[in-house]
């Protein structure tokens, strides 16, 4: 059983904890800010987490094997980095870091300390995604990829009134690209690798992209990723090939199936063996990778993280979205 | 009754002629190549067209009021130009010309000869489009526009085997942008005017774009137009605003309705008073404009044509799709 230290008490942690019992992880401690101690204690009691701490060093000096970083984006780098330096494996929420420099630094620290660094990108571990990946060849040569994740954020109302929460704060590495389009970008990278060039046309307010369109050019096809927090739509994504089109309804990050329509009128509906919750297969994969020390798969996932980070950075540079920690 | 001379005997003319009786036009002659004389004579007999000609001068010297140019794209300029020089009004199929220079020349000739020049873009005259245009304000500030017209072309099979028909021939001003994405571009222009910048990522084979994605940046929102002849999809288009999203199923050029989904869960389904055929309201509008000499509306439509031509040219320049008649 891998001993897990959890950083943060936010939405994702609250969603994750009820599923912990199904996983090969034991949550041994949870870190909160002094302000959120009460919530941390409530969660600890409910999910039998041994220790609540507000001092990160205390957690790092305890018998924790893996640190799960579920903090606002801009804190990923320093908190993951300190864990790696202490010889702890790290599972870090997406996006792993604010920019490529930070990610390269983390990778170096992880290597030096011979520990694993894993990005919590549910997508790669979903059965529907994996089946889709195998089915791509059925489409014939691919020509157009169009991914849409537009979700009106409950926090956008506040943003319009001048209250800037982390998801819209450049100082906290927020924005539609980092927060939501990141899923589309990872899907592209996982399915097709890194594009030859990226352009990002964004709607910018208070220095942050509230929505935007990333155009990704590949040598033999063209792709577009729409991510929005200031408007919504049906979140339909399509991969169009010479023989047929594959459609996904809903965000790719929680995809449970897909449909292939061939030009000859035939249709295949794929509903995969879906997990109880999208984080379950992800943490099952992480447990296996960590237990078996599967460095090959670890490195494959790391390559996806690095390529995605490069796209996100290229896109931000193109749109002029700059974070305080950026050197560009 | 306006006396119409029809240039061409292709698919669009064959679709149009059955509806001519509903319109304030009398087809007095039809021009064909010597190779297509038989088809022209068959159409003339069926639809009571007075004269079949293979010599354009013969038509231009006859008592024709309006020339309808339904020839391959690269011939629009010269045939429309000669009509205008002869003092005939011109209705020209889309795209009006191969590039902006040609269009500016035609506009000058039309002005000098005090005749009208109208692009046969069905979209602007469709009741559903006009209702949608009025309803845009309901969406709140618009953030993302995504238009998709992907239609696998029956001619693409031949193209893959090396048989290049006009729609895929750079020498005939073909390609996915000119042939199919042009509808999305006109929709954008009609609804929102000219974008601040355009990028076009295209799939190129034999010097032509078989599909592509045009990214159009506006000061306050971002738009993407997908047009494909080498793959297909559901052809869903969306206009996403802060208050709701407007969706169109099927190509915008034949839109018969649209749906608005508000973020609060309310839905409006709009099915407009649809015409028997999409070219009917267009030619009704042209008859009115010509009969009433409505220069104001003529000039509005001409501005759309010019702005669209500029986008198409900018996009082709960006993707390196060049026609023999281009000076860039």
Automatic annotation (TrEMBL), chains A, B:
Residues 138-246 form the GFO/IDH/MocA-like oxidoreductase domain. Signal peptide: none annotated. Residues 3-118 form the Gfo/Idh/MocA-like oxidoreductase N-terminal domain. Pfam families: GFO_IDH_MocA (PF01408), GFO_IDH_MocA_C3 (PF22725). InterPro entries: Gfo/Idh/MocA-like_OxRdtase_N, GFO_IDH_MocA-like_dom, NAD(P)-bd_dom_sf. The lineage of its organism: Bacteria, Bacillati, Bacillota, Clostridia, Eubacteriales. It comes from Butyricicoccus pullicaecorum 1.2. One of its GO terms (molecular function) is nucleotide binding. This is Uncharacterized protein.
């Amino acid at each position: 059983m891998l001993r897990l230290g959890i950083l943060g008490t936010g939405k994702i942690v609250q969603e994750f904890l009820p599923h912990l019992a199904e996983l090969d992880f034991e949550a041994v401690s949870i870190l909160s800010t002094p302000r959120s101690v009460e919530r941390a204690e409530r969660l600890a009691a409910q999910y039998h987490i041994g220790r609540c701490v507000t001092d990160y060093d205390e957690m790092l000096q305890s018998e924790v094997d893996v640190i799960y970083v579920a903090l606002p984006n801009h804190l990923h780098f320093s908190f993951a980095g300190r864990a790696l330096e202490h010889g702890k494996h790290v599972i870090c929420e997406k996006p792993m870091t604010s920019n490529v420099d930070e990610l390269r630094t983390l990778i170096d620290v992880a290597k030096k300390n011979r520990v694993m660094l894993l990005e919590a990108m549910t997508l790669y571990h979903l059965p529907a995604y994996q089946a889709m990946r195998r089915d791509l060849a059925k489409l014939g040569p691919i020509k157009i990829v169009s991914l849409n994740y537009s979700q009106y954020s409950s926090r956008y109302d506040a943003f319009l009134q001048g209250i800037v929460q982390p998801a819209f704060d450049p100082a906290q590495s927020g924005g539609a690209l980092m927060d939501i389009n990141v899923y589309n970008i990872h899907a592209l990278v996982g399915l097709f690798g890194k594009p030859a060039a990226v352009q990002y046309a964004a709607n910018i307010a208070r220095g942050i992209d509230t929505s935007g369109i990333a155009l990704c050019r590949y040598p033999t096809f063209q792709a577009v990723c729409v991510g929005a927090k200031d408007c919504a739509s049906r979140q339909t994504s399509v991969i169009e090939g010479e023989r047929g089109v594959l459609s996904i309804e809903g965000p790719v990050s929680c995809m449970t199936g897909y449909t292939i329509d061939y030009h000859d009128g035939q249709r295949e509906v794929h509903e995969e063996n879906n997990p109880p919750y999208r984080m379950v297969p992800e943490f099952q994969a992480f447990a296996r990778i960590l237990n078996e020390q599967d460095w090959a798969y670890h490195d494959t996932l790391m390559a996806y993280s690095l390529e995605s980070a490069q796209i996100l950075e290229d896109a931000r540079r193109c749109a002029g979205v700059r974070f305080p920690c950026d050197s560009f």
